[in-house]
Write a structure and sequence with these properties.
Belongs to the replication factor A protein 1 family. The protein has 348 residues and is mostly beta strands. It contains 5 helices and 19 strands.
Length: 348
């Protein structure tokens, strides 16, 4: 937390609190301790929510934090605050076995650490921007594809830590998918847009570019590439148009800066999954978006039918999936044969 390198630290969870969201978008804040200091600004990545909700991770549990990232956020009226986002954790001793707080931890702060942190590994020299690059960064509208060293030299923020209350941030994210350009026309005017789904180790988020930004960034943004992105507008996500597990979404604007990451980014995931056991599907609400992995036990032949409301030709195939939870679920695979010859496969 104080700038050193710590490999898989051992900590105790002293408490937890739900801070935002509901269902798949719930976020939990943890109070953690190393026996000497406690820190209340630790956040559990959404893919780990189940171990907390199920009770596997409870108060007084001793855990090994296998992977985490830190971010510096503005704490209203109190300056900056370091947040630790826990991405992967192993429970060493359940809270029911430990049953008490270990040690006498004091609240951690920037000034409370008196011991010397482990020396960080040598850092590669950060290229110094030229005057022309500085001018380009100050006025991003002149060209969106900036030198990545300008953004890469800044501290990046985990996607899971973003909120509308932050003004300055840079994320390093992989493009999971990108929509084609779509147009609209209504009483307020007309225009075009495209959207993309971004992810990093901490989470995922939808980003949308309208009108001028649509033209400016569409050809630059490529699926599976990694980019530094900054200066977007953050707002509450419209769940009618996105199923990503994030309460917020980004909108590109005239100040948005995008630069391709030219360094090794193999640690960033290509797609974010949160698999649910098939036996748990019956407990989920209708229209919930789920990730499921299983074995195809049986599949029907392809059937052809015509949609009553559109008259379009449909092809349908049914299949049954099973997994190690002992559950089974039927799925329908539809292939829509549109007049333009465009096919889209949908799983229901």
């Amino acid at each position: 937390m104080n700038g050193g390198l710590y490999d898989k630290p051992i900590m105790q969870v002293l408490g937890s609190k739900k801070i935002q969201g509901s269902g798949a978008n719930e976020r939990f804040r943890l109070l953690v301790s190393d026996g000497k200091h406690s820190h209340s600004f630790a956040m559990l990545a959404t893919q780990l929510n189940d171990i907390l909700i199920s009770g596997q991770l409870s108060d007084y549990s001793v855990v090994q934090i296998n992977k985490f990232v830190t971010s510096v956020l503005k704490n209203t009226g109190k300056g900056e605050k370091r947040v630790m986002i826990i991405l992967d954790v192993t429970i060493i001793s359940p809270g029911t076995e430990v049953g008490k707080k270990l040690g006498d931890p004091q609240t951690w702060s920037e000034d409370s650490v008196t011991t010397t942190a482990p020396a960080p590994s040598p850092m590669r020299p950060v290229p110094q921007p030229t005057p022309a690059q500085v001018h380009s960064l100050a006025k991003p509208a002149a060209g969106p594809n900036l030198d990545s060293s300008l953004l890469g030299s800044q501290m990046t923020h985990p996607i899971a830590s973003l909120s509308p209350y932050q003004n300055k941030w840079v994320i390093k994210a992989r493009v999971m998918n990108k929509s084609p350009i779509r147009t609209w026309s209504n009483a307020k005017g007309e225009g075009k847009l495209f959207s993309m789904d971004l992810c990093d180790e901490s989470g995922e988020i939808r980003a949308t570019a309208f009108r001028n930004e649509c033209e400016k960034f569409f050809d630059i943004i490529q699926v599976d590439k990694v980019y530094y992105i900054s200066r977007c507008q953050l707002k509450t996500a419209n769940k009618q148009f996105t199923a990503l597990k994030n309460d917020y979404e980004m909108t590109f604007n005239a100040d948005t800066v995008v630069a391709e990451c030219m360094e090794d980014a193999s640690t960033l995931p290509t797609v974010k999954y949160d698999f649910v056991p098939i036996s748990d599907i019956a407990n989920k609400n209708s229209d919930t978006i789920l990730d499921v992995i299983g074995v195809c036990k049986s599949a029907s032949d392809v059937q052809e039918l015509t949609a009553k409301n559109t008259g379009k030709l449909l092809k349908k195939r049914e299949a049954t999936l099973v997994d190690q939870s002992g559950g089974a679920v039927s799925i329908n695979l539809f292939i829509y044969l549109l007049l333009l010859g465009y096919t889209k496969q949908v799983i229901t």
